[in-house]
Amino acid sequence: MNWLAEVGNLLVGEPAAPSKEEQGNSIQVFASAGASSSDGSTDGAALVDSAENDLASLNLGNTDSRDGYLAEIGKVLLQPSKVSKYMGMDVTSLMSVPLFIMEPFSMLQKMAEIMEYTQLLDEADKADCQFERLALVAAFLVSPFGAAERTWKPFNPLLGETFELEGLDSGVRFMAEQGLGSNVRFMAEQVCEQPPVSAAHAENEHFTYDIVSAPATKFQGNSLEVYPKGRTRISLRRSNEVFSHVPPQAKVHNLVLGRTWVDSYGSFIVTNTATGDKVHLEFKPCGWFGAGQHEFEGHVMDAEGNAKYAMSGKWNSYVDMAPCNPDGSAIPDAPVRRLWTCAEKPEEDHYGCTHFAWHLNSTQYLSKAPLASDSRRRADRQALQERKMTEAAAEKAALDAQQQQQHKELEQRGEQWQARWFEPAPDMQILDGEEPADVVPLWRWNGKYSSMRDSMPAGSDGWPDSVMGKGFTTIQH
Hints:
Number of helices: 13
Shape: globular
Helix content: 25-40%
Number of strands: 19
Structural class: alpha+beta
Distance between the termini: 31 Å
Radius of gyration: 22 Å
Largest sheet: 15 strands, antiparallel
């Protein structure tokens, strides 16, 4: 579900206007290589130079707020002569935005937010009914939508950057209260820079979860279509069933002018690859005056298409399930079971984050210090969390320069960068409904992290103080 994180990466929020001193040198807009057209072709330096020329004319240093910033961008992007040039482009990496519309999380941290409700997968593994298992897996895959409405931009991960969760068990009070499944371990790694590709793996005694995410976008003037290109697989240990997932697409409305908001619509499909059973939900597009916003409905069906359960709800709030007739019609007075309820969010939180997200952005529930490549250690992220805008901008520039130097050194040595915790898997079978390998590369968890982590000493009692915003590097030793 990393495409949900990508939505956040493409949006801007509604923060209070920073002071001029806070903005400092953080207000930057520039083009970057790799922008591509809607058909996947690369326009190269000509398109990048064009974007640079268009954006260089803006006086962004005098903007005092998000609205002022977007108004200036709108002067370029919404001119008829300019819109036609960018229309249909994948703009994922076209622009870098000022830090005052970013949040102190990396894309990899947002990927980990799906771990908030893994008790649903524990329940699925324990269930005897194959259709109940399928419904619980589907509810788990709906659950991250509950955190998808915040509209701040996270930090793009650097190549080799990681984010990990480990040592989370039922004895941890916070995690038990949040419903996190017992002994969950999670690791995400940025395995490709251009185009951006992230891979993640999670597991406990009940399930394994694997995702490779490579979402794409299409600029449509004042809106942006987000295509959730990815490969998600969930395996349940007891039944040995493997589930694949096709999420709905999303659209970002009022990207430049107006209040920015996200809508998810279209087919949401979960397939039990062992039995052929499916969950098919339809996410309704938001109509006039908010009609149908967040709503979905559909069915759990056997391999022959006979409905077993009706499912409905709001993707930002809850998921319900009830028995139904084989044709999908309702059974009068059938008991309704609520599979998932979104946890309450903090009131008046500056970034609109969940409680779970803020706990992920700490070391409080880690038994050992995270790797040097962990997102928590990024100095720019930590400075932004402390609202030190100028320092955050300087730290971000330093990290970018450091990675460019690493790339140059590898090239001079004739070496290629290699991921540490995932490996290319050209022999992996592509399941029905999944994207082809040229759209979503094939990557496999190599298992080395688990054995390495188990062998690491716990360290001194004061290690948490040496982690947040400190010691970050993606250099492999």
